[in-house]
Amino acid sequence: MAARLRQVYLEPGTVGLRALLPEREDPAGALVGALRAHRDYYASIRAESLQVIRTLPARLEPVLERLSGLFPELEADLYVAVGALGRGGTLGREGGRRFAVVGLDFFCGGPHAATGSLSAWQRSVLHPADALPGVVAHELIHTLQPELRVEELTLRQAVLAEGTAEYLGWLISGETVHARLHEYGLIHEGELKRRLQADLAAGAPLERWLYQGEQAGDEPADLGYFLGSRIVQAYHERYRDRADVLHELLHFALRDPQAFTRLSGYFG
Questions:
Q1: How many structural domains compose the chain?
Q2: For 97, which DSSP code?
Q3: Phi/psi at 244 (5° precision)
Q4: Which part of the chain is the DUF2268 domain (predicted)?
Q5: Beta pairing class for 78-81 and 97-103
Q6: Which of 122, 169, 178, 211 could, after both became Cys, cross-link 138 (CB 3.0–4.6 A)?
Q7: Given pLDDT bands bounded at 50, 70 and 90, which one contains residue 118?
Q8: Half-sphere exposure of 204 toward its Cβ, with a 13 Å CA cutoff?
Q9: Beta carbons within 8 Å of 257's beta carbon, 6+ residues apart
Q10: Tens digits of per-residue pLDDT, 130-148?
């Protein structure tokens, strides 16, 4: 089965599909594993996924127009593919270019979806197709940020990188794919803010706040998206009269994250 998937799906597939699949595993093996473990789920979303692809241009037109209006320098490609239920979206790199990728397998949720085999984390990040404009805006914002590899990011940079994409994605599309994080975060913001401030000072690892997946424990995974967006929002609200403030969110936040955080006033 793996050989057949490699022949008919992976080899003729796009760079976006390759970026969506696990980097440290055999992609065909990862897909076979997901298909076998979640056969009922994939079967239940087949019709929905085909319908979503047919209607995707119309769904995305408003958000892409708004993105281009605010950031005319945007030139990145967007890829949408069905993956192995590992990533809902990512920033891809190949041949010196960056592009946005969305995992359609995470955006076909609804009453029709057979979710019994999915993990608690997978169910928590499963969305209906209506959430696609928000995740597309988020991932395309990443293509506009300075080139920084994940393995080189400090916790502060990573929180601000995701927070900027989260905040601007919401500003552009009117929605966030992390609504559950924001609901939880607003209730517990004081405590979360104190913990993040301590971890930033200590240089804690990224996984304390981001990219946790199944390892999140008792809280929702990836609360750094919420807190990063709150820092970025605070900066934007403080300096919104500046003509170049949106580009400051993209660039200043990552070029001098400590100064950006301080000037945001978020931590007082």
A1: 2
A2: E
A3: -105, 25
A4: 129-240
A5: parallel
A6: 169
A7: very high
A8: 14
A9: 154, 156, 157, 160
A10: 999 999 999 999 999 998 7
Domain boundary among 144, 178, 210: 144
pLDDT, tens digit, 9 for 90 and up, residues 217-262: 788 989 999 999 999 999 999 999 999 999 999 999 999 999 999 9
Pairing of strands 97-103, 89-94: antiparallel
Q: 90: part of which helix (H) or strand (E)?
A: strand 89-94
Helices in the chain by DSSP H: which ranges? 2-5, 15-20, 27-37, 39-44, 46-70, 120-124, 132-144, 155-173, 179-187, 189-202, 224-238, 245-255, 257-264
Residue 151 predicted with pLDDT over 80? no
Q: Are 112 and 161 in the same domain?
A: no
Burial class of 266 by CB neighbour count within 10 A (0 to 12, 13 to 18, 19+): buried
- With cut-offs at 50, 70 and 90, classify the pLDDT of residue 5: confident
Regarding whether 240 and 109 lie in a shared domain, the answer is: no
Of 109, 127, 144, the position where a domain reaches its end is 144
From the list 195, 192, 222, the residue with the least C-alpha distance to 207 is 222
Reading the block at residue 131, the tokens are: 């959430």
Give pTM, 2 decimals.
0.94
Residues spanned by the domain of 16: 2-144
